[in-house]
Amino acid sequence: MTENITSNAIIYAILSLNSEIALQKEFLESSEEIEQEDLENEEGILADLEQAFMEFIDLYKNRLKKDKSLPSIEELLNSEL
Length: 81
Known about the structure:
Elements: H1 7-30, H2 36-66, H3 73-77
């Protein structure tokens, strides 16, 4: 299945997930009145986002080995979506 995912799709997924993680962290840090049940749910969402992000990073690292024309992970994460 991973061979069917284009490099551009992986890049967009990484950038989108990175943005969502930042938003979720900001939400958790700024929300003072989150009920415990909701807090656990929101932290679970953050954990899921981070897991998906790491899986796409691993996939991208494999692509980088095959295609040297792709930007490095550092370049990718320092760019804007």
